[in-house]
Amino acid sequence: MSTAETWEYPEHKQFERVPTLDQVDPSDSKAIYAARNQKIRDDWVKAMEARLIKEKLDECYRTEGVNHYKSCRHLADMYLKSIKTHRVEGFRKST
Q1: CA dist 88 to 2, 3, 60, 67, Å?
Q2: Nearest CA among 33, 9, 7 for reference residue 21
Q3: Residue bearing the bigger pLDDT, 93 or 8
Q4: How many other C-beta atoms are found inside a 10 Å radius of the C-beta of residue 20?
Q5: Rounded to an integer, what distance in angstroms lies between the CA atom of residue 20 and that of residue 38?
Q6: 73-76 LR contacts (CB < 8 Å, sep 24+)
Q7: Residues of 57-70 as b/e, b for ≥16 C-beta within 10 angstroms?
Q8: What keywords does the record list, in alphabetical order (predicted)?
Q9: pLDDT band at 7 (very low <50, low <70, confident <90, very high)
Q10: How many CB atoms lie within 10 A of CB 52?
Q11: What is the spatial distance between Cα 65 and Cα 15, in angstroms, rounded to a whole number?
């Protein structure tokens, strides 16, 4: 079995969940600050997950050689899906 077939997402530190920016009271500055931090943290975790997938995909390409199209397909699909959805947006909404 190759490394591409056995790879799974690593576990990362879990923070206490707080209400999102849409759910907090605009006059509560501590809640807004916590919601902003949570949003940025979540975005960066997703971006780093995409980076980890890319690193595993690169490793798979190197180790599998000519069979990389077949052996690394699921990592390539995961990476393409992740770069479309896992972007760092920040807490501000652009119009």
Answers
A1: 32, 28, 26, 33
A2: 33
A3: 8
A4: 13
A5: 8
A6: 74/4, 75/4, 75/7
A7: beebbeebeeebee
A8: Electron transport, Membrane, Mitochondrion, Mitochondrion inner membrane, Respiratory chain, Transport
A9: low
A10: 16
A11: 40
Q: For residue 95, what pLDDT is reported?
A: 44
Could you give the CA distance from residue 86 to residue 49 in angstroms, rounded to a whole number? 8
pTM: 0.66
- Both tokens of residue 75? 């990592």
The pLDDT tens digits of the residues spanning 30-88 come to 888 888 888 888 888 888 888 989 999 999 999 988 888 888 899 999 998 988 887 77
Enter the tokens of residue 1: 């079995």
Q: Are 60 and 3 in contact (CB under 8 A)?
A: yes
Distance of CA 24 to CAs 34, 45, 60, 79, Å?
10, 22, 44, 33
